[in-house]
Amino acid sequence: MKLNGSEILIECLLEQGVDTVFGYPGGTVLNIYDALYKNSHRINHVLTAHEQGASHAADGYSRATGKVGVCIATSGPGATNLVTGIATAYMDSIPMVAITGNVAVNLLGRDSFQEIDITGVTIPITKHNFLVKDVNDLADTIRLAFEIAQSGRPGPVLVDIPKDVSAAVAEYVPAPASKPRPINPPKPERLAQAIEILKQAKRPLIYMGGGVIAAGAYQQIRALAEKLDIPVCSSLMGLGGFPADHPLWLGMVGMHGTRAANIATRDCDALIVCGARFSDRVAGNPKGFAAGAKIIHMDVDHAEFDKNVQVTVRLAGELKEVLFTVASRLEETKRPEWIAACTANKVEWPAIPTDPEGPVDPSVILRTLRELTDRNTILATDVGQHQMWSAQFYPQYLPRHLLTSGGLGTMGYGMGAAIGAQFGQPDSRVVLVTGDGCFHMNLNELTTMVSHQLPVVVLVMNNRVLGMVRQWQKVFYEKRFSATDPERQTDYVKLAEAFGAKGLVIAKNGDILPVLSEALATDGPVVVDCRISKDANVLPMIPPGGSVENMIESMEAYEQ
Amino acid sequence: MSNHSDNRTVLSVLTYNRPSVLLRMTGLFYRRGYNIETLVVCETDREDLSRFTVTLSGDPDIIEQIRRQLLKLEDIVKVDVLHIDDCAASELLLIKVKAGNNRHDLLILSQAAGCRVVDIGDDSLTFELSGRSADVQAFIQRVRPYGILEMGCTGITALQRGDSTIFDSLI
User: Fold this and answer.
1) Mean predicted lDDT score pLDDT of chain A
2) Given a cut of 70, is residue A92 above it in pLDDT?
3) Collapsing DSSP states into helix, strand and coil, what is residue A251?
4) Which fold has domain A188-343?
5) Fold that domain A362-556 belongs to in CATH
6) Of B24, B27, B68, the CB nearest to A302
7) In sequence order, which residues have a C-beta less than 8 Å from that of residue A124 and are 6 or more positions away?
8) What predicted TM-score, i.e. pTM, was given to this entire model?
9) Minimal Cα distance from B76: which residue of A?
10) Which of A18, A183, A296, B115 has a 20 to 30 A CA-CA distance from A206?
């Protein structure tokens, strides 16, 4: 069958099971958009307000569904606007295929209008990328892009298609969907070594990360923890991979992690690290991290071994299989004393204040939201204080229900991610928790939510300052609040209404329950202005480079 | 050019013969903070494959990190780690020396070093020398007093010793 490049692209996306793409049209993708128009009954295109929103939407769609997210942008500024979204996906290992147009092949390299070397730009932030100069290579390149995006440690792949290639005609031969490449199992001697360490261990601990979610290894990690009675903590990226109401759950580890998780990493004698990478937000002091423990590192990416922390045993492989094999070769164990010691460090949350006129506490908003929403609710966040409060006070019970930029820390990620998630999981409730700083970065995507009447609840934790940076200025810069107090006068209710959304306000403690209830009962986008104190802090906090001994648990105590 | 004596490691990297490989590889070295000392790129007797020979210094842990990072690049087929003293390694020097009244001495020197004279100017001699880094460095030191006008040197290219090759265990 003879098709033009754009039609071949659409057919190849359909081969891969793609039903929704996020994008923005422009000169060099006119042919592609023409093919999208003709195929609109087969593939849904979601127009965002800005290409960055499209890239985050593809990412959010992928995180919420486990499928490969797809975004499309034109050449030049369209392509560069995708960059932050691609980098966000790269840092969090999210499978994504970004399609960009480019100027015709004979205009490449001549600084033509809206020309940019986007493959050159995105080399450091993609697993791989392609510039397709011949329409006969297009179909296989798209297929390979999907294969690479899903194989091993997932990540984004970019395919740059010059305008003449999207118009040129070639023979199209259908093919099945790309499959991830097979992964070699770990070496038997290393498995034996890991088994031996776990047999000897008296105080083992599991530290898991986003790799567990990428691999879908939730059952296996739970089975290992339960069989060997091992407490579990996780990085931000791993939240939801282990149910937060499980007796073995200690919470998030690291800079803003729980006291229980951080003390357990200090006290354990064997640490199973599963799909995690000892980021500086977890292991602030890599030399002192789990210093008394033998470390077994399970990961699909060989380059993660010994990168940040030297480990005792490296188990490279597919996590489901590695976890299953390890668990199957060990006897059931009970270690009540170690579990009791770990759980004794869990800190109870304070009682929810009852004074209706009292101030609005962000943790109370999140705890109330948790009570009002079911476990299938997807929580997207932006980056900063509200992100950490979301991790701390909105416990996750299921994987792929917390969408947050953990690695790159992208302010402005949340709006796009929430849109993508709502398209990917139309039956789930999607809530975005953002801050007034982050919301101002990409609030233009409200227009996308309104166009599609997406019932996303946007909670703006409005402290009128750039809270996390300000908190660091408070702790490390003697309260010199440089550029964190922008004095913005935005009226969030009017703003929401101007876009065609609903706007609500939480101004006092007594508003929290009724306003959240009203927001959740609304069938369309709602923005809630949550007026919190500018002095609310994220605690506990381990300063950068520090360990659990340096943990700040109360700002008043720290300041004295 | 510095004088190493010589704990350098040679990475022999087999890649697909595609235009962006050099950019992808050097970009990886740059952003991970690894320092390349020499780099030689050439075709192989297989049309679809190229060989990059990279020399670098660094402790074995770093070299192992580099190897693992390189293997993540789609274009890279295989990475062999060779120690410079345990492989067949060679580099090529072209050096233009002021002749003056020393034309005769220089010719004797170059002969002893196993050089080829590739050009004779009115007041210069240009030599070509190939061999191990130490020999090349020694020759440069010997002719320096006569006045080096300019020189160019390739990096090291290397093959493992014995019958084994980088193509072993390739499909």
Assistant:
1) 97
2) yes
3) strand
4) Rossmann fold (3.40.50)
5) Rossmann fold (3.40.50)
6) B68
7) B27, B31
8) 0.96
9) A128
10) A183
